[in-house]
Amino acid sequence: MTKKRVTLADVARLAGLSTTAASMILTGRPDTRLSADAHAKVHAAAASLGYRPNVAARALRTDKSRLIAFISDYVATTRFASGLIRGALAAAEEAKHVMLVLETGGEPAREIQALEAALDRQVDGVIFAAMRAREVFVPDLPINVPTVMLNGTSARFPVSVLPDEYRGGEQAVALLKAAGINDGIVLLGHNAEQEAGLFRSESIAQRFAGIRAAMQSAGMTFLAELSCWNWEPSHGYELTRKQLKTARPRAILCLNDRLAFGAYQALGEAGLEVPDDVALVSFDNDELASYLRPGLTTIGLPHEDMGRRAVELLLSDANAPELVTMPIIERGSLPRA
Amino acid sequence: MTKKRVTLADVARLAGLSTTAASMILTGRPDTRLSADAHAKVHAAAASLGYRPNVAARALRTDKSRLIAFISDYVATTRFASGLIRGALAAAEEAKHVMLVLETGGEPAREIQALEAALDRQVDGVIFAAMRAREVFVPDLPINVPTVMLNGTSARFPVSVLPDEYRGGEQAVALLKAAGINDGIVLLGHNAEQEAGLFRSESIAQRFAGIRAAMQSAGMTFLAELSCWNWEPSHGYELTRKQLKTARPRAILCLNDRLAFGAYQALGEAGLEVPDDVALVSFDNDELASYLRPGLTTIGLPHEDMGRRAVELLLSDANAPELVTMPIIERGSLPRA
DNA sequence: TGCATCTGCTAAATGCTTTTAGCAGGGGGA
DNA sequence: TCCCCCTGCTAAAAGCATTTAGCAGATGCA
């Protein structure tokens, strides 16, 4: 069980060459002058011994660890944004890197610890991921490796990966229009006047902005704008129920799928059919959206793509922020045009 | 930006002592004979220089990396079992370890690569996590660090962490009985006769076994057992609809929350009230369960606890499997007794 | 005074790989 | 013949921390 590790020296000895030669051959150096015979012998020896390099020793010498730190507030923790990790993991694997994941709960003390733990391990780069897109607190430690902000921004690190919410907002409105719905639309989750002083996140602000711009340029206005701070199913349910008592909308533009879920419940209770009586569009492409009947058409948060992109940017030393486009997931909650 | 790292030698120099002394003091060795004065000087020097040990160098010498590998098939990837990671991450952090997460999609080639990547980095232990509890394939490589199976089992590694499904099954039945429901119960998701030759997983088999044992010892029988292989909302919906055409059950025991979700939809369409017309109990405590109205009472999968437990066992060199109890999450889908 | 023991500390080896500097021998050109 | 260059390879240093073995001086005891 506790066999000694086989080291490069063992390989070299078996091959009858120096460790220098073995190292050069196994790391695939290009400009070496070692003979084909030497190559063959070293590879054979390595294979027969089952040699695996000691990454710690290599890291010590080269200062490269093929390790990426993924530091997030709640991403791993919450099923909601886990697509970010999934994409990052996949891209890291393709680039033959490995990912250290650290969760901080958004607490500064833990953020410092996480970053220190990562830096101590000579990570080749760090990704700061936020569950909800926002200005992220980054501990004030010297970081001398590439850094990218995922689903968040930081004044200190310019390269970030965010969903293109503005266009997403526009698309939601476009979907309604394409379905022939021009009025009787209720916006569920936000009321510009009531929430005037409040700020959710830059990303959500973009979503609003895209929606409003598209509405305006199409000459459309909302029948009502229903505000609530938390976007949970129960709020969607209550707000929709209340709305139904005053005027039945032709469509509901929901600011996320959980609100839409609540709206479905209220609509169902009222005996209203989706999409014929009232249509819905929403945002996020939460798992829920596909469970609903009929399925909810929604502008998806491209978490997985974003995660991928983050490690790609990290590894390519990019230096500009990137917006990734939100996919339109058409299901059955809008009438066919 | 690219300042040289400060090394132990720098600290020692500033403190006017040897690196030996600095090392001993900073690692907090117990039986050293260094003076209080020396301790103070070294700590002061380390603090003023912002010294951080080079983990690679330390790992090289000590063969300990304070790194745990979390190798899973689909856990990080799927929001479903992400609680496993969450718990593991939290426990690792408490134990001042850091977690490498690797995802394999259940593909042997990737599993080998993941394990090699982990072993190359001198991890102090590895956790093999499976999304669905099952006999897990573990690559046939020499592993000379503690290993625990999380939500799965392996003949090679005896220590595993599994949910106590048998008791969970019993509890679900007990809940029904406690609510005064003794008959008219349909089991949604499994039919013992029809699925005779089929095997889902040991864990699910335990769930069935617990249910049957409890039914039998209470002298109860099912009104019907509805079989379907995949436990998605749409199946729950269809099966429940069909059942409603022949006989209305007093209660539905759903094998997971997604099936229950589908059942709610069918019940709603039929104008039936939960829990007064028909009651439901289910398994998993999926996020969905709390969104339903009324909330779904369910026997939860204790993923987070399991994840925690896995790293605790790993770090304590345990050698026996462990069953973690499934919590009863009471919401509103059963009548109050 | 002489010897053993303790106190407080350090030199040097060690872990494994990468990389720099350079060696030995053969061939070509003058 | 002499010198230079090329080929194919290696010795040794470097990277940073931990750990073993042991040294110098002080103290205790007879």
Automatic annotation (TrEMBL), chains A, B:
Single Gene Ontology MF annotation: transcription cis-regulatory region binding
CDD domains: PBP1_sucrose_transcription_regulator
Alphabetized UniProt keyword annotations: DNA-binding, Repressor, Transcription, Transcription regulation
Keyword Repressor on entry: yes
Domain of life assignment: Bacteria
Positions of the HTH lacI-type domain: 6-62
Record-given protein name: Transcriptional regulator
Source species: Devosia soli
